[in-house]
Design goal:
With about 200 residues, the protein is mainly α. It folds into 2 domains: about 100 residues, no CATH class; about 60 residues, no CATH class. Helices cover about 40% and strands about 0% of the residues. The chain has 7 helices and no strands.
Amino acid sequence: MSTPSQGSSKACESCAERVNIGCHHQQKSVLSRAIGLLLVYLPILTLPFVFISAYLTYYSLIYVGAQNVKKYRDFLPDRASHRYSMKNQIVMDGSFKLSMAQSKLFWILNCTWYCPYSVGLFEWHAYMVKVVENWWCPFGHSRKNSYTDGAIDQSFWHIYPEEIAKLTEEDKNNPIFTVDAEKPAAESGLLSSHNPLSPMR
C-alpha cells in the first residue's frame, strides 16, 4: 500500500502543466511554512500602490477617448456566488490549539475577501495594460495573442491612413487592434486628420 508521500509524488508526475504544490507542502519544515504564510500577507502593504497604479491606467484610457473600459467590479465574483458564509463556513482541524485554521473568520477573510479581491485587482490592472499596449503599440510579438481580452476598435496607428500604411499586413489586419480587419482601407472609415504626434508634412 502506498504512503501519502508516494501518492503525492505520483500526482506530481502527472501534472506537468500545473503548479506542483500539494505534493511538496508536507515535506517542508514548520518554519518554512510559517515564512510562506507570512509572505502571503506582506503584499497587503503594496495594495494601495497597486490601486493607485490601476486607477491611473484607467483614467489615462478615459482621457484619450476610451469607452466601455471594464471596471474593477467586473473582475470581482458575485457576492452571492461564494460557497460559504460565516454561518456555514467549514474549518480545518488545527494541528495546535490556537491554529487559525479552526476559525471561520480566518477562512472568510482570506477566501471571500483577500484572495478574490486581490485576483480581481491584478486581473483588472493586467487587462487595462493590455488595452494600453494594443492602443499605442499594434505591433506583433510572441505573447500578443494573449491580449485578446484587451481588444480595441482601432489602435492609434489605425486611425491615421498615412500611419496604417506603415504597418505590416499582419499588424494592419490583426483583429486585436482593429474591428476592420480584412476590410479594404476605403471601407474602414479611417480618420483622415493629421496625426498630432507625427512630424508635420
